[in-house]
Amino acid sequence: MTAETLHNGERRLGIVISGSLTRGVEVRLDGGISVEDIAVGRYVTVEGEKRRFFGMITDIALDAIDQRLMINPPDVSDPFIGEVLSGTSTFGRLHVLPVLTIGSDALSLLEGPQPVKTVPAHFSTVREASEQDVERVFGQVEEKQFYVGTPLDMETKVRLNPAELVMRSSGVFGKTGTGKTFLARLILIGIIQEGAAVNLVFDMHSEYGWEGTSEEGRKVKALKQLFPSKVAVFTLDEENARRRNVSTDFTVEIGYDEVEPDDIAMLHETLGLTDAAVQATYRLARRFGERNWLESFFAIEGREELNELAQSLGEHEATLAALRRRLEMLCRLRFLVPHASENAIQRILESLDRDIHVVLEFGRYGDDIASYILVSNLLTRRIHERYRERMERAMGEDVAKPRPLVITIEEAHKFLNPDISGQAIFGTIAREMRKYNVTLLVIDQRPSGIDDEVMSQLGTKITCLLDDERDIDSVLAGIAGKSELKAVLAKLDSKQQALIFGHAVPMPVVVRTREYGTPESYKEFGFREALERKKKAEEEEGDLWG
Amino acid sequence: MFKIGEVIEASTSEFTAQCYELHQPPPFGSLVITREGGVEIFGVVSSAATTSIEPGRHPIARGSEEVDEEGIYRSSPQLAKLLRTDFTALVVGHRENERLHHYLPPRPAHIHSFVHMCDPEEVALFNQSLDYLSILVSAQEQADELVAASLRHAAAAHQAPRDFLIKAGKELAVLLGGEINRLNNILRRIKG
Q1: For the segment A170-187, what is each residue's pLDDT rounded down to a tens digit?
Q2: Of A16, A57, A20, which Cα lies nearest the Cα of A485?
C-alpha cells in the first residue's frame, strides 16, 4: 500500500462518479483495491468539498471501460496484463448509501452527525471509515454503558441506546438459528444494565430466566444468573423448573375467574373455534358474569342441561357443545385452576414496581402455542390496564409515572397477524406506542406474518439473516434506502451478525454481536451489578455504624 | 551523452538525422536529444534506414565471391562512403530553463544540430512523466511497435522495470480506452 492510498490510517477506496440522494452514489474503485477486500455493510467516508459524508457500502459490482473486453477477454493468465488492466480498463464499482454528514466547523462538531440532504460532489474521495469516524457517529461507549457489538471489521463499539430503544416498540427478527435469542437476551441485558425500563419476558422456551443453550449445545447464563437481585423467574410449570434445577421465585396459576371472553377470542385460530363459538363466550359471560362464566360453563353436566342453556341463550346446541369440547382442552393445562391461590398479576406488578424484571418461563407449555397466547395475552391485558390507569392518573394528578415497561414476546406472528392483531392487546400496545409507558420487544422469525400496521410502528428493528423475500420486505418496509439495505440484509452471515436500524441507532449498522457465554463476557455484564452491590453494602455498613 | 549524428531535416513534430557511423543508428524507440538555441529537444527514434547517398543509384549485390559479409566492404572500401544511415525521431518533449515539458517545443530543431543518445539517468528522468505517450500512440506508422519499443527502453533505465511498466501500462489503458486490441498488442510486447 502506498502512502497515497493511506491517509490517517484510512484506506483510500476510490472516487464518486455518479449518484443521487435517493439511490446513493456510485464509487469507482482505485486500481490497487481489490473488490474482494470490500464487503457490503462496511462504512466509508466521502470527502466532499464542504463536508464529510458517512455512508455504508450496499453493493459491489464489476465494470469495464469497454464492453468488448468482456466478449474478448485479455490474457489474464499473465499477471502483468491483469495488473495493468485492473483499475483502468476493468474496475470495481461500489454503491454507497450516504446516511449522515459530519461538518468540519465547530458548530457542526457540536451538533454531531446530521442526516444527509445532498450528495458529495463529483470525484470526491472515498475512504474506509476510521474507528474515530465510527465512534463519532455511534457515540463513545463509556465503561458502564451497554453496547451490542462492533461494526464489521472494526473495534469500535456500537451503542444501542436503551432509553431510545424502550421508548418505542422494537423487533428482533431472523431465521431460526441465526441468533435471535442471543440477541434478544443481549438487548434485555442492556435494558437491565442501564435501568432504562423494567422487563416482562414471556419466555416460551425457558431461555431467558436462568440459563439458555447456545447453538452448540453449551449452557449459557441468562438474566437471573447475571443480575440475581434484579430478576425474578416466574414459572408456569414448577415441575419442569425443578427438573432443570432452576429455583423459581413464583409459580403462576391462573384461575378460571380470570379468563375473559376476550382471552378466548384470541385463541379462536389455535383452538379452532368458529365465530359463533367466540360470540357464545360473550353471551355466557353476560349470563354468568365476567368472573364466573368459565367455571359455571364447565360445571354444566349432561347434554340436557347444555341444551337448556343453549336455548336460553339463543345459541345452537352444537355450537355450545363444540365450544365446551374445545375449552376442555384448556382444562388439561395444569396452571389453569378453578381458583388461583395467589394473584399472579398482582405478584408480577409488585415485582415490576420494585424494579424487579420478571421472566415468565413456560416450561413444558412452551411448545403449546395456545398456552402461550392465552397466558401472555391474559397477563398483558391486565398489566396494560393497570399501567393505563396509573398513567392517566399520573397525567391528571401530577404523580410519578410508572416505570417504562418492556414486554418481550416470541413467535409474535401468531398473535400479531392481520386477522387478530386488531383484538390482541399486543397490537394495541404496538399501535398506541409509548403513551402508556408500555412497549413491546417482538421476537419473530416470520415478520411477514405480522400485521403491517404493527411492523410500521416498531421504532428499532434488529434483524439477523432473513432469506424469504416477503420477510425481508416486511422488515425493511418504509425505511429510506430499502433496496440498498436489502442487499446488505440478504448477505448477513448466519451467525453473530445483525442489521440494526431505527431509533436506537443514528444510522443502519451491521454489527458483529458481542461475545456472549464466556466468563469474560459475563464479567462485563455483571460489572455494574457487582459494583452496585459493593456500594450498597458499604452504604449499609455506614448506616449501621453511622 | 554519446554524439550519434546530425539533424538534416526538421519539423515541429519530428526530425531526421544522419548517423556519423554507417549502420549504427540509435535503437528503435530509444530516446535521443538535440537542441534549438537554448531549448533541448527530446525525440523517440521512430525509424531508421540505410540508403545510397545518391537517390538515383541503388546498391547492387556484390558478395557472390566473398566468404563473409565484411569481405564485401574490405574489397570495396568506397562503399562505406556511398551509403548513409539516417534515422527519424518523433519529438516528444523539450527542456527549457531546466524544466522538462512533455509536449512539443515552440520551434523545430536546427539543421546540423548534433543528436545525442540519452544516458539511462536522462531516460529515467524524462520518463517520470508519461504524458508523451499520447504523441507516440497517435504516430503515423507502427505506432504500437513504437510505443512498446520506447517503453522497453525506458524500463531498462529504471531500477524497478516491472513497476514502471505497470504504471505505463495503466497510462496506456486509459489512453486506449476504446481500443482494447491495440492495448493488448502493446501489453504483450512490453510484458518482457
Answers
A1: 899 988 888 888 888 888
A2: A57
Q: Which domain holds residue B179?
A: 2-191
- Choose the mutation target among B164, B171, B179, B180 for the interface with A, i.e. most A CBs under 10 Å: B180
Q: Which of B128, B175, B127, B165 lies closest to A83, judged by CA?
A: B165
Residues whose CB falls within 8 Å of the CB of residue A319, separated by 6 or more in sequence, listed in order: A274, A276, A277, A280, A310
- The shortest C-alpha distance from A90 to chain B (Å) reads 9
Distance linking the first and last C-alpha atoms of chain A = 66
Question: Can you give A278-317 as a three-state secondary structure string?
Answer: HHHHHHHHHHHCCCCHHHHHHHCCCHHHHHHHHHHHCCCH
C-alpha to C-alpha distance for A25 and A121, rounded to whole angstroms = 10
Confirm whether pTM is higher than 0.80: no
Q: Which residues of A361-383 are buried (b: 16+ CB within 10 A; e: fewer)?
A: bbbebbebbbbbbbbbbbbbbbb
Q: Is the pLDDT of residue A534 over 70?
A: no
What is the residue-wise DSSP string for A506-533? Answer: SS-EEEEEPP-SSHHHHHHHHHHHHHHH
Q: A77, A88, A90, A91: best mutation site toward chain B, by most B Cβ within 10 Å?
A: A88
Q: Locate all alpha helices (DSSP H) within A22-71, ordered by sequence.
A: 68-71
| In the predicted structure, residue A54 carries a pLDDT above the cut 80 | yes
* A91 vs A85: CA distance, rounded Å: 8
Which residue has 410500521 as its cell numbers? A456
b (16+ CB within 10 A) / e for A128-148: bbbeebbbbbbbebeeebbbb
Q: A18: which strand partners? A: A26
Could you tell me if A22 and A140 are in contact, meaning their C-beta atoms sit under 8 angstroms apart? no
CA distance to A33, A232, A492, per residue, from A517 (Å)? 37, 21, 22
A76 touches chain B (CB under 8 A): no
Whole-angstrom Cα distance, residue B95 to residue B33? 10
User: A83 CB near a chain B CB, below 8 Å?
Assistant: yes
Which set of grid coordinates corresponds to residue A239?
415441575
| pLDDT (tens digit per residue) in A143-170 | 667 788 888 777 788 877 788 888 888 8
Neighbours of A126 (CB within 10 A): 28
The minimum CA-CA distance between A21 and chain B, rounded to whole Å, is 29
Q: What is the DSSP letter of A246?
A: -
Q: How many structural domains is chain B composed of? A: 1
Torsion sign (Cα): A40, A43, A47, A50: positive
Q: Which residues, 6+ apart, have CB-to-CB distance to A437 below 8 Å? A: A387, A391, A401, A402, A403, A404, A405
Instruction: Check if B169 contacts A (Cβ < 8 Å).
Output: yes
Cα distance between residue B46 and residue A8, in whole Å: 46
Residue (of A380, A359, A372, A513) closest to A440 by Cα position: A380
How many helices (DSSP H) and strands (DSSP E) are in chain B? 7, 7
Which amino acid, one-letter code, is at A377?
Answer: N
Say which range, A384-388, A459-463, A528-532, B80-84, has the weakest mean pLDDT. A528-532
Q: What is the pLDDT of residues A410-450, one digit of tens each?
A: 888 877 777 766 667 777 787 776 678 888 888 988 888 88
